[in-house]
């Protein structure tokens, strides 16, 4: 037996690092009331008269933010792009491409000052943000307008050293880079017109500049997974190290053709409701386990069995029949100033499910060319739409399919009228955006 002093671990190595979460203790008075700290109220979007939801589920209590506090804003600088990726739904459009004018953007920046709970702005949409000639100015103007985190999603091909330096000087907080492959072969095939080596070099140079300029910058990887590149996930950790990413967001491909639908990896998940945490199914709670030749088959069996799986009382599931954009207090500004509630309703497009074509029409509660963003957000129409989508009493088109209602998003068999969301793949947890 060895001497304890010889094998004693470094205590500092086992001390908990400062948690990224905000944690507070609050005192409950005799009436059962307690006060939230200001930092928590801000995250909840809670001010005088606000209504937050308290949810007791899976033996845990959750407090959900106010649906009607605008906390995250997506701005589409342009619908144009310098690439023709095989995964891009822009191939189905019948609408003109365009870019946001600086006049419109400046007006929007002034209106942002009237949104007390806004926390972040994402410059992204269905185009390439760096394709806009004034993207650096947009980042700078947003940082000057409000104390918000500013993010960009990019394909990385236009991220030259000069553009990188200007974005850092403007105050960019996070950059999401689309890597739909961890090797040159798969990446270059999917992202036609792009180069894996070029994008990797551009992002690495950006990191180097950020360090040299002492500018904190977070980097995330956006990865569209499908049959063509699923095996690349084995090498994702190497890509994470090379890029210096702290987050990886994976999504299924959005099927805009029958061929793209055949490349999806989630059709059984949709029809059999895997990872859905459905009521009425047995609940199985697992401990931490080794992943090896002894455990991989039993674990695979449990995952394939469509049970409600938990890991020490933490659900292994994704939200279904639930709109993340609504719950997160998000809205989208299209390049021409039209305001949409989500990515799915930003542009007209076609998707396929079970071999059937579904044409999705956009929905706009307002237009910045007619009214201000605060006026549109607080309008009765938009308020009622958020409440309706939160309840999500739409027919489950993603499961049954086959009837004429699946052909569009104008009505469903539950009596809902445009826009209906039962067939939305974002709401079913198979498509996600940074």
Task: Give start-end ranges of low-pLDDT stretches.
Answer: none
* C-alpha Rg (nearest Å): 23 Å
Mean pLDDT: 91
How many separate helices? Answer: 15
Instruction: State the end-to-end distance.
Output: 52 Å
Label the structural class. alpha/beta
The coarse overall form would be: globular
What does this 3D model show about the protein?
The longest helix has 17 residues, at 196-212. This protein has 434 residues and is α/β, with parallel strands linked by helices. It has helices at 4-7, 11-14, 38-44, 102-112, 135-145, 161-170, 184-190, 196-212, 236-243, 258-262, 267-272, 296-304, 324-327, 373-377, 380-391; strands spanning 53-57, 60-64, 72-75, 120-123, 149-154, 174-178, 218-225, 247-252, 283-286, 308-311, 314-315, 330-333, 338-340, 349-353, 356-360, 366-367. The mean pLDDT is 91. The protein is built from 15 helices and 16 strands.
Keywords:
434 residues, nine-stranded mixed beta sheet, 17% strand, globular
Strand and helix map with partners:
Blueprint: H1 4-7, H2 11-14, H3 38-44, E1 53-57, E2 60-64, E3 72-75, H4 102-112, E4 120-123, H5 135-145, E5 149-154, H6 161-170, E6 174-178, H7 184-190, H8 196-212, E7 218-225, H9 236-243, E8 247-252, H10 258-262, H11 267-272, E9 283-286, H12 296-304, E10 308-311, E11 314-315, H13 324-327, E12 330-333, E13 338-340, E14 349-353, E15 356-360, E16 366-367, H14 373-377, H15 380-391
Parallel strand pairs: 3-4, 3-12, 4-5, 5-6, 6-7, 7-8, 9-10
Antiparallel strand pairs: 1-2, 10-11, 12-13, 13-16, 14-15
Helix pairs in contact: 4-5, 5-6, 6-8
């Amino acid at each position: 037996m060895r001497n304890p002093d010889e094998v004693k671990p470094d205590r500092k190595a086992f001390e908990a690092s400062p948690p990224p979460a905000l944690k507070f203790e609050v005192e409950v008075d005799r009436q059962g009331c307690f006060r939230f700290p200001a930092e928590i109220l801000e995250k909840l979007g809670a001010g005088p008269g606000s209504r937050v939801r308290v949810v007791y589920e899976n033996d845990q209590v959750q407090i959900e933010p106010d649906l009607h506090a605008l906390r995250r804003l997506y701005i589409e600088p342009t619908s144009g792009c310098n690439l023709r990726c095989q995964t891009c739904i822009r191939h189905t459009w019948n609408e003109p491409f365009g870019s946001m004018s600086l006049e419109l953007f400046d007006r929007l920046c002034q209106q942002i000052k009237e949104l007390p709970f806004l926390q972040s702005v994402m410059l992204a949409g269905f185009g390439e943000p760096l394709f806009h000639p004034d993207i650096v100015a947009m980042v700078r103007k947003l940082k000057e307008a409000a104390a918000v985190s500013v993010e960009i999603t990019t394909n990385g091909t236009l991220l030259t050293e000069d553009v990188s330096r200007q974005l850092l000087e403007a105050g960019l907080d996070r950059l999401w880079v689309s890597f739909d492959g961890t090797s040159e072969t798969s990446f270059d095939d999917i992202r036609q017109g792009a180069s894996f080596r070029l994008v990797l070099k551009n992002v690495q140079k950006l990191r180097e500049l950020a360090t040299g300029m002492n500018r904190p910058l977070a980097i995330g990887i956006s990865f569209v997974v499908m049959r063509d590149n699923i095996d690349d996930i084995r090498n994702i950790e190497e890509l994470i190290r090379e890029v210096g990413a702290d987050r990886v967001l994976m999504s299924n491909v959005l099927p805009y053709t029958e061929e793209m639908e055949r490349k999806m990896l989630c059709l059984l998940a949709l029809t059999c409701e895997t990872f859905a945490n459905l009521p009425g199914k047995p609940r199985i709670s697992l401990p931490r386990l080794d992943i090896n030749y002894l455990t991989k088959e039993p674990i695979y069996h449990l995952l394939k069995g469509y049970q409600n799986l938990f890991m020490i009382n933490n659900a292994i599931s994704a939200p279904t029949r639930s709109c993340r954009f609504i719950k997160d207090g998000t809205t989208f500004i299209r390049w021409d100033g039209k305001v949409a509630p989500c990515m799915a309703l930003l542009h007209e497009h076609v998707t396929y499910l079970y071999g059937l074509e579904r044409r999705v029409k956009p929905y706009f509660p307002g237009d910045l060319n007619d009214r201000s963003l605060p006026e549109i957000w607080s309008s009765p129409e938009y308020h009622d739409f958020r409440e309706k989508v939160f309840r999500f009493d739409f027919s489950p088109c993603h499961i049954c399919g086959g009837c004429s209602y699946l052909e569009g998003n104008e009505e469903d068999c539950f009596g809902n009228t445009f826009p209906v969301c039962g067939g939305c793949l974002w709401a079913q947890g198979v498509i996600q955006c940074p």
